[in-house]
Every structure is written in structure tokens, then in C-alpha cells.
Amino acid sequence: MERRDLMKYVDHTLLKAFATWEDIQLLCDEAVQYDAASVCVPPCYIKRIHDKYREKLNICTVVGFPLGYSSTEAKKTECLQAIKDGADEIDMVINISDVKNKEYKKVEEEIALLKNTVGDKILKVIIETCYLDEEEKTAMCCAVTNAGADYIKTSTGFGSSGATIEDIRLFKKHIGENVKIKAAGGIRTIEDLEAFISEGCSRIGTSSAVKLINGDSSKE
After folding, report:
1. Contacts of 103 (CB under 8 A, 6+ apart)
2. In this predicted structure, what is the pLDDT of residue 2?
3. Which of 23, 146, 150, 159 has CB 3.0 to 4.6 Å from 130, enough for a Cys bridge?
């Protein structure tokens, strides 16, 4: 695969708290130029991006981000506002406390409610693998599948670590056939991109892809 072709897998991402409109426009311009799968941006920028770029971009945003412990109703409201503003995809964070309390059915019900809320828009479920053991990760694969979400996603990028190949392989064993995989967090080399795609990830969340494709391997 040519380096530039890797961008079709990438959610070109900027979720830093201090991201300016100038920063976001650069991200969007790069996404258009390199034909990224989407831009993943803070909710406050969705409408401005939609108004400026219209059909040129697939807009992804985050809900319950980055800790996941806001109420289900709050997450639902975030989803509705994001879609109203022009979002095409939602990356939600599960309630990790519920997972740790072994309330797996409660997590599944929240995911199902949010999938029903977004309808035909794409829902990706961030389970923040760095905080979960194997049993919990497996339970989340089942919850995401049963709830009808479109993707399971490894990480927010704000946790103690990001995506690993081992977790992708675990996902593949336990998700349903209609669930896709997004790897995110700590993906900073061209080899990382290629490895996760070769393992079956349909999306990669990173802000580094354009630099890597252009041969810049420096850290962010």
C-alpha cells in the first residue's frame, strides 16, 4: 500500500483542550488534501467546520470525553447536539466505573441507547483498554456487539497508554461480524499505522499521519 493510501483509514484527530480555530482549519485542510476518513474534533467546532467545508469532510466528534463517567442522559444530549451541528460520526466513551463494578449490562444499555439516538450515523465505542483487564475487555466486546454499535475503539489518547496489537487481536476473537475496530492512542510511526491496518483495523485515530506520510517521524 502506498503511504498516501493509508489516510483513507485515518480519523485525522485534534482533541487538545487548547486547539484554536486556526489549528482546526489546518487539520481540516490536510484531511481534504489527503482524503482522510474523517476529522475527529472537539464538539465546539463541529458547526464551524460543517459551515465551511460542507460535503468535503466527514466530521467525527467525541461524547462523554475523555473520562466517560457523565450520565447517560448527558451523553444523549451531546449526541443530539453534535448531529444537529453536522457531525457524521460519534466516538463515545463508556462509563469505566460501571465496567469496574461489573455492571456490564448497564454499559450495554447505554451504548444501545446512544446508537438508537444517532440512528444511521456511525457510533464508535471507546472502552479505554489501558484500564481494563482481559475479562473486562472481552465483556465490552460483547456489550458493543449486542448494543449494535458500529465500532469498538481502543483508547481516548488521554489514558495511561494507547492501542496495542494484542488488544486488537483480542477484539477480533470476541466482537460480532458487524463490528469494526478503531485503534487510537500512541500511534506515531508509519510502522504503527501499517501494523494496525494489517491486523484488521478499519480506522486509526491519530494526529501524526500526515507528517508520517510526508516522511517526518519526529514526536508530536
Report:
1. none
2. 85
3. 159
Q: Which of 85, 91, 98, 150 is catalytic?
A: 91
Note the pLDDT tens digit of each residue in 128-142: 999 999 999 999 999
Catalytic residue list contains 56 = no
52 catalytic? Reply is no
- The residue ranges of every structural domain in the chain are 3-213
For residue range 14-62, list pLDDT tens digits in order: 999 999 999 999 999 999 999 999 999 999 999 999 999 999 999 999 9
Are the beta carbons of 164 and 181 closer than 8 angstroms?
A: no
Do 163 and 183 touch, CB atoms closer than 8 A? yes
Active site residue 182: yes
**Three-class DSSP category at 89:** strand
What is the model's pTM? Answer: 0.96
Contact, 26 vs 16, CB < 8 A? no
Which class would CATH give 3-213?
alpha beta
* Cβ(85)–Cβ(50) below 8 Å: yes
Burial 71-105 (b: 16+ CB within 10 A, else e): eeeebbebbeebbebbbbbbbbbbbbebbeeeebe
Q: Among 75, 76, 124, 182, which one carries the catalytic annotation?
A: 182
Lookup: cell for 24: 482546526
| Positions in the chain whose pLDDT score sits under 70 | 217-220
